[in-house]
């Protein structure tokens, strides 16, 4: 129970890595505000059914006003806000090469992945600075570190999230606040829905460990970065990737 007494806000909590992170934070004793545009209520209900403490809120991470409302809701319902997991994110629905990507789709990806992460940090940091403590974990990707054909807008946002993580970490390092990012490798979630099974098998075979990661693998690392055990870690992009990044 390494997060006992803490209050966490988790975005993307309706699915995949966000849901697993909300569940793990609650299992570690945190009160969790589950935020998403869909299905956050299901996650909160599941946590409550497992004797955890959670509530849900509808949050579109692109909207500054919705962030203010979420921060206010966390404080009102649970009394503080100590932990932010900025997990909501999308990949492109169409071709995402540098040449083929469209302006509208580029703006959508940047708006959710990058602007959303920035707005989240901007919303929670004043309260964390006031209380002199806080933990933020953003979700970058292995795609922040290497080029991946057909993920141009996506890699651009994830690289920028890694840079913004370092920036925020250094700006607030003297104020009891840590800011880190995770670079997940291939984690099996709804984000790969629509990819043919043969291609999924080929992708898994290309990971040194030989299989996809689980959302729980990322949730466990986030729980560690949220905890006091990680108080000397800030500004890092932590790869959780089955060895992909070093192969
Ligand atoms: N799964 C992987 O292999 C992998 C690898 C690297 C990074 N990531 C990152 O992990 C994060 C979570 O991805 P996942 O695999 O769990 O995918 P997922 O599709 O299961 O979950 C993404 C969640 O984000 C939510 N979301 C989308 N737009 C939103 C918005 N505007 N406001 C609020 N919520 C919104 C969705 O509703 C969904 O619940 C993403 O940032 C993704 O880029 C995933």
Query: What is the average of the pLDDT values?
Result: 97
The CATH homologous superfamily name equals NAD(P)-binding Rossmann-like Domain
User: What overall geometry do the principal axes of the alpha carbons give?
Assistant: globular
The count of strands amounts to: 7
SSE order in H/E notation? EHEHEHEHEHEHHE
What about the largest sheet?
7 strands, parallel
Please give the oligomerization state of what you see: single chain
The main sheet orders its strands as 3-2-1-4-5-6-7
What small molecules are bound in this structure?
nicotinamide-adenine-dinucleotide
Number of helices: 7
CATH topology: Rossmann fold
- Overall radius of gyration: 17 Å
The end-to-end span amounts to 35 Å
Low-confidence segments: none
The share of residues in extended strands comes to 15-25%
Structural class: alpha/beta
